## 1
Amino acid sequence: MIQIIFRTCDKVGSLNGLPRPFNLTKPEVIRGCFRSLLRALPKNKPIQIHLVADDLSSETIGFFDDELEHHSLKENTLVYHDKYGAENSLRKCFELAMQADDEDIVYLVEDDYLHIPNSLQPMIKFAETYACFVHPTDYPDRYTRTEDRFRRWLIFPGEGVHFREIANSTFTFLGKAKLFKEHSSVMFMSCKNSDDGFLSSMVFGKTPLFSPIPGLATHMHENVMSPFTDWQAIWNEVNI
């Protein structure tokens, strides 16, 4: 079973202050990224979607209802709608991850990642093969930061892409549920102040983390989008 845990809030623009690409608003980003996620799902595996919705507007709730109905995924979706706040919505996501069967693939995904069509299958297969975590984005600063340029990283071939070992992630990554459970205490501790740096330093030094080259998704902030891909074209495809 593939467990998709999608965390979304349409009232928070950008925690790091970076502008959105293509002059998009946060609700527009959510809609396009969710559509792209549905197009990225594998066709031959059972899917369960968990929508962790933090104080959404009625318009955004209506969008999710319509989109899931269109893709015949409404019966496969559980919705958790509350006024969570960032820390509690993240805690809810980890609680759901810990409830999955050990061999399930859990994809914890934030609402501002734009995915390439059919992109989850190579990430899932890689995570199953190497018992690791996978972050879907190839950040451009991995080619410019001294600590990345001059460090030797493991690289493995995957389905249509290569996977490079990396040291850190946001709260968007996938792996087998049993790996989430092995690191449960740290994951819940990282919810305080939504500290993905703490998560990365404590988890990914013990269980390896990889990202695809080129990226199979991009974080929708200017100046951090994955290189080598025409993301404007991907965006246009899901928003025709």
## 2
Amino acid sequence: MVCSPTVATRVRIPFTVEANYAGWRLDRYLQEKIRRLSRERIQYLIAHRLEAEGARTLKPSTRVTPGLSFALLREPEPEPDTPQEFRVVHDDGALLVVDKPAGLPVHPTARYSANTFTSLARLRFPDRKVDPAHRIDRETSGLLACGAAPEVTRRLKRDFAGGRVAKTYLALALGVPAEDRFAVDAPLALTGASAVRVRMHVHAGGLPSVTGFEVLGRRTAPDGAPVALLACRPRTGRQHQIRAHLHHAGLPMVGDKIYGPDEAIFDRFTRREMTAADQERLRLPRHALHAWRLELPHPETRTPLLLEAPLPDDLRAFWEGCR
């Protein structure tokens, strides 16, 4: 089921500054949060589309402080279609873990407001404050852990930040891994070297980033390309880490518009101008990454939990279509 509501009034996109951004200029903070926009566009939005709490005036040069809240306003327009249902994997009243479908954004963005997981969760659980404790990309499917009350969410976030949560993803990659088990230890950074603003690069000045990989199967796609099914275990939590590390290892993810055969495909995708040739090269309409397992202590009882979400139909069908 999909939905594309038209909103009658301006859409508010809320922001609350996190502690690690203390002292940043406001325009730099927003450019970090909305990386597809230029600095000039960000400064225009601050001047004309920003609503601050308490009628406070904020400028591009304003130094932000933790807890500062404001919203950007955008004109109403039909939102892109997204899945409107998600499966509950675990719910004990405090901890809620869902199997998020591919295509559903977790949080509101410049393009999505009502059609997000957080908006759907408010409708489905009106008596609880469901808040995700971590992020997964819009195209990534799989497990998303949430607290059902603010204090629970804070404990969950501390567990993720403290390395007490083990995450395992499944990915379909193009190529022939030389070993059944291997690791990529390569620092990642946003360098500005790509036309795609959100693309991470292996860079000596980047943040330490390590991912362990295990080959679960090797097959051949109908077009003759070698395909590997991989279990991916990120030991750090950088943006696009698994995708960037697979690209660095010469094993690009199936369906990846940024780290796959040509990053220009991502630009055409954002402009809704993808070609049939683009789709053929990608092989799948979304990147083939699925959040498969979570191992974590329960945020209240501290009892160890192991949760799984099976490979979704689209990725399973592609894998089973390989020989």
## 3
Amino acid sequence: MVKKLEINTSFTHSVKRGLWKKIYTQRYLLLMTIPFIVVAFIFSYIPLWGWFLAFVDYKVGHDILGSEFIGIKHFNALFSDAQFYNVLRNTLVMGLLSMFSGFIGSIALALLLNEIRLKMFKRFIQTITYIPHFVSWVVIANILTSFLSPDGGVINRILLDLGIVDEAVYFMSNENWFWGIHTMAGLWKELGWSTIIYLAVLAGINPELYEAADVDGASRFRKMWHISIPGLMPTATLLLLISVGWIIQGGFESQFLLGNSMVINKSEVLDLYALRYSTQIGDWSYGVAITMFKSVVSVLLVLLANYLSKLFTSTKLF
């Protein structure tokens, strides 16, 4: 028993020595991370004290700490509001559409660009697909609205000239079109930027695999299916896991700029819902309860996705 205790003690000491040695050898790298840790703490963790507002009856201009504590009253009101479930549906649907269209589209574009042998043409395609990422949503929304306008819009003119429709289509005022328009706008804006990581992964695949496939007489499609796509999958799965946490964090900028009063039933998301209660109605505590709900659900989605990924694949976040 004493001998076993001595072995365990010596093993513990060796582990500690190895840990301190690793910390010492990487001391400069660890010091370089301190500013980022401080920034994350200041801007991501300190503001969490504001969640306290969700449990009090706060009025603008009054003392926060002196506000009446009401417990989970705002959450009860939130889950009993029919509009909340409509907004939650919009957020989840648009989040899922954006996630999967971006995931599939960026992989497809990266695979196609990887097959282009003419470098000048490849760079040209990369440039024109990257540019929208750096353009403001305000500009993107204005361009899209002009293209889809019933009064001289390019899309309506094409449809009328081809005889596909007899009269102009009011795309932006039909709520049934909004989810599709929003998804295509997001895809146009972010598709090129999302392919950068996948192109880097494809560039790192061992070229000997492709050479061996050439010897075996494999076509481009076969090489893409059996070499390129399997090489992308670990990275693609990891990025998909990360993006799951953003499904419910649908934002409000794109929906706010593309939406209007005629499509609000399909365009309003949780952020716009919280903003409306906070600024227009003045119920800041209710707005904080909504954002708190979003954060909790995002964490749960990431944990669930990570568990399923560990269950069915070898890729995981933690």
## 4
Amino acid sequence: MNHLLQSAEFWVAVAFVIFVLFMLWKATKPMMAALDARAARIKTEIDEAQRLREEAQKLLAEYQRKERDAVKEAEAMLAHARDEARRLREKAAEDLAASVKRREQQALDRIAQAEAQAEAQVRAQAVDLAVAATRRILAEKLDEAQAARLVDEALKELPGKLN
């Protein structure tokens, strides 16, 4: 062992080991501080990620609620539109029925008026024909003395018929 203690390689190895141990001893604190800082930074990032995750979940829940509300509102609007369309359809049917009835009554009134006019025209023609036929018959069969006597009688009856 004596030989080993006198060897330069041995002392270089010992010095190297001491140097490495000294370096480890001196570097341990900064390495531990760096590792602690890195751990703290990682913990901070994890906490931030957790906070962001919770915030994202809150936003997701809020948007899902808003979507449900929008769907309900759209369904309500659709139901209202259907009711309004049904009501308008019913009102249009009622208006159409009233219009048809009104036009039917107008047509009936026009028909009645046309019938009355036709009847009046027929009566007027019948009167004209009767007067013409009476004139012809009277002209053929009545002499002047009989005509004068009929005119005198008609004039005597006239004041009684005018009252």
